[in-house]
Amino acid sequence: MSLKTLVKDSFVNFAARLGVGANNQFSQGHYQHNWITKNRGELEAAYRGSWIIGKVVNVPAEDMTQAGIEIQSTLEPDEIEKLQTEMLRLKIWPRICQGLAWGRLFGGAIAVMMIDGQKFDTPLNVDSIGEGQFKGIFILDRWLLQPSLSDLISDFGPDLGMPKYYTVNMGGPASPAMAGLKIHHSRVIRFEGLDLPFYQKQTEMLWGESVVERIWDRLLAFDSTTQGAAQLVFKAHLRTMSVEGLREIIAMGGKAMEGLAAQIENIRLYQSSEGLTLLDAKDKLEHQSYTFAGLSDILMQFAQQLSGAVEIPLVRLLGQSPAGLNSSGDSDLRTYYDGIKRKQETDLRVPVMTLLDVLARSVLGAPLPEGSNFTFRSLWQLSDTEKAQIAQNVTTAINTAVEMGVPLHVGLKELRQSSHVTGIYSNITDEDIEEAENAPPPGETEGDEPQEEPDNKEKIEEPEDA
Is there a contact between 53 and 47 (Cβ–Cβ < 8 Å)? Predict the structure, then answer.
């Protein structure tokens, strides 16, 4: 058995020219790099000029950041509220969204933690952060940076092999305060595009691949088909006129040509739905109409390929509900939101936890209590019926817990914390919680004081001897 026979592991019929390698058109297909990720100008033009590319880049980034987080901690409710308020004031979520978007478009970006009074080129020491020092994050895409490719992280851990420093390019659109700065990797949050194999990652200066590159051919097909369909509108209604001796009239020019032009102008002027078309007996006027049957199906097929390639359902990508009876797109959205949840956990869990630790030291003057955590809020919007059912279940569970001995003020805190889901109990104030905390235990009336037994009981006098 020859080596050639051994390596054939798929169907081939040379007589019928079927299969790969059977000298047919199918066998001539192959894959090659289009290197779109390296072409910043092309990516920027595509992002600015194509709404579909804008959606592909922005939609996942927006959905990963729009709902925020719910902090679970032993912190007081007002302290948790301070952290949430400060995140809004510093525009943390819009900046993270921007970083995710530029990472998807260009293949890489970073968010720099701006801590007042600290040097950017030194390792971050969170214990040295004082109140009011954290000023937010600043986003820089990969084209504004020069990673230290000759100075990589050598410590074992998740960042092994990544650049140790990032230098902001001089003369770029970054603020003058950032241009030329050398930033230590512990002070940045990396946003990468699609992950690449080792050798391909080297060609991208240790960044990822733009999400646009992998679907570039599908994008061209979708936009080309859309533009082609638009061009067909101009040819949907064609009229042709046969004129005897047209070549001779054009060759002669002069009065003959002027007469032909005057005839055509009169036909256009007087022809209407109730008018007549006057022609020479030997001339002929024909009408041709173009039908668009099947064109919408072709466009939708390309749209579905794009939707599958970028893992965004049509109802979210195009704002178009699926066709068919009882089709609402809810199942597609739920599957998509599950994918967004997975990306949040893999891409944002560690960075957001680091930001919360830095934020707590700056806002509260102390680190987060041990065991603090957070959950990403659900993107799925509950109906009023679902909210009412959840509120009833939460209330029943908390009432049961209070009856079993959980302090009342703790139950009130839990009710208020559930208000963002249920829509009720948001009016429970800190005064209500404090009053419940200072209330006497059940069974005692306010003002009652426990009776103290006297230290020295009166001694019974013995009768005197008679």
Answer: yes
> Would you list the domain boundaries of the chain?
41-217, 382-438
Q: Report, as an integer, the average pLDDT of 193-208.
A: 92
124's tokens: 């971050």
Report the pLDDT value the prediction gives residue 405, as an integer from 0 to 100. Answer: 79
Which amino acid type is present at position 462?
E
Task: Name the residue with tokens 């914390």.
Answer: 417
Average pLDDT for the chain = 82
**pLDDT-wise least confident of 190-199, 263-272, 311-320:** 263-272
